[in-house]
Design brief:
The protein is α+β, with helices and mostly antiparallel strands. It has a single domain (29-170), classed as Jelly Rolls (Sandwich). Helix content is 19%, strand content 30%. It contains four helices and nine strands, in the order αβαβαβββββββα. It has helices spanning 22-27, 44-53, 71-78, 160-170; strands at 31-34, 57-63, 82-83, 88-102, 108-114, 117-121, 127-131, 137-143, 152-153. The strands form two sheets. Strands 1, 2, 4, 5, 6, 7 and 8 form a seven-stranded antiparallel sheet that branches. The protein has a two-stranded antiparallel ribbon with strand order 3-9. The longest helix has 11 residues, at 160-170. The radius of gyration is 16 Å and the shape is globular. The two termini are 23 Å apart.
Length: 180
Amino acid sequence: MDENDEDQRLPHHLDPEQFVSLDYLEDLGVLYWHLNPMDYENDEELHKIRAARGYNYMDLLDLCPEKVENYDQKLKNFYTEHIHGDEEIRYCLEGSGYFDVRGKDDRWIRIWIRAGDLIVLPAGIYHRFTLDTSNYVKLMRLFVGEPVWTAYNRPQEDHPARKGYIKNFTEKVGVALEAR
């Protein structure tokens, strides 16, 4: 994505446009599935993913100006580059938004998520989130155990999750997990 100060909710394509493959994202540790958001409560594939990966906690978040207190501040916080000590798992049930992740060259890669997209960001990857111009997304948030909400703003090179991420994904020591 281009790096200008225009509205963060715009696509920010490079000129000419460049796209990355799901395989490239998987090499960064980012996993992706496309599921049926209309029947998420009964979706067998979602149940299998949750069981295989240990996602035993779930909640729902409607993110839009009308439903979130201090909306502008929360969106600003989500868009500040950070890492987490655990995976970040989000399943888009309605609406759309962008996850930006850092590639191996430290440039931003913009991932547009829409209804049906389930994305897993590995612990320690630099990322941020924003809505697109629709200004609405309904997300299912999944966790292993009790939710941990702590974001560590960049720089965090000495954080154990960041060190583990560097070792597992940028040095190609880890094994990719099957997604899609």
